[in-house]
Amino acid sequence: MYVISVAAELVDMHPQTLRLYERKGLIRPGRSSGKTRLYSERDIDHLREIRRLTQELGVNLAGVEEVMRLQHELDDLQGEFEAEIERLEGELRGQAQALPEGGARTDPKDRPVYVISIAAELVDMHPQTLRLYERKQLIRPGRSSGKTRLYSERDIEHLREIRRLTQELGVNLAGVEEIMRLRHELDGARSHLEGNVRRLQDDLSERMTRLRTLPPASSESASDGPQDPDEDDAPDGRP
C-alpha cells in the first residue's frame, strides 16, 4: 500500500533506516511491477515494533533481529496452516455435521521429566538462575503432584536459547523477554494449528473409510427393483 516515503513518515523514521532494516531482513516489503518498494500494514506494525524494542527497551540490533525473525516465522506459519486448513475444509465443505473433537495429543518434547538440579546441570546454569527465568516467565516448567518443578526437553531448548542470546549475542533481559514471549507464542500457535489440521485429516480419513466399506451395489439394487429370475442366464450378463 505505502511507498517508502509514506511508510517512513508513518513510523517516524528516515527512509534510509527502512532500507537498512530491509537489508538485515527485519522487514520484507513487497515490490510493484516497476520494482518500487511497497509497505503493507503488517510492515508498518513491524517497524513500530522495532522502534519500541530499540528506543523503549534498549534491545540491541542482534536482539531485534531475533525478535523479527520469530515474528516473520509466526506470520509464515499462520499463513501456511490457514491455507492447509482451508484446503482440507474445502474437501469437507457441504457436509453439515460437526467435526469430531478427538483427544488432545501431547508432544513428547513437552513432557516434564527433569527436576531443577538436573535441568540446571544440562544447561550449565545455577538453579537460582532457572528460578529467576521462571519468575520472568521466560520458561514455564511443569509441576509434579507434590509441586516439584519438572522441566521438559522444550524447556531445556529454551534455556539454551536464552544462554545463547545473553552470552553470545549480548541481548539484554528485556530483549530476551520479547524473544521468549514470541517463542512461546510460536510453539502454541504451531501446536494449535497442527492439531486443527490433524483433526481435519482424521475426519477426512474416517469419511473415506466409511465410503470404501459401503455395501456393494446397494443403491443399484434399491433403484432397479426386483430382477427377472432368468436374467443371469443372458450370455453377456445383461437383462
UniProtKB/TrEMBL annotation:
List, as start-end ranges, the regions of compositional bias called Acidic residues: 227-239
Q: List UniProt keywords, sorted A-Z.
A: DNA-binding, Stress response
Organism superkingdom:
Bacteria
Protein's UniProt keywords contain DNA-binding: yes
Region named Disordered: 206-239
Q: Which CDD domains match?
A: HTH_HspR
DNA-binding recorded as keyword = yes
Spell out the molecular function terms from Gene Ontology.
Answer: DNA binding; DNA-binding transcription factor activity
Database matches in InterPro entries: DNA-bd_dom_put_sf, MerR-type_HTH_dom, MerR_fam
Every copy of the HTH merR-type domain together lies at 1-70, 113-182
Entry-linked NCBIfam families: heat_HspR_dupli, HeatShock_HspR
Q: Which PANTHER family match?
A: HTH-TYPE TRANSCRIPTIONAL REGULATOR YFMP, REDOX-CYCLING DRUG-SENSING TRANSCRIPTIONAL ACTIVATOR SOXR
Q: What is the name of the protein in this document?
A: MerR family transcriptional regulator
Organism whose genome encodes this protein? Deinococcus metalli
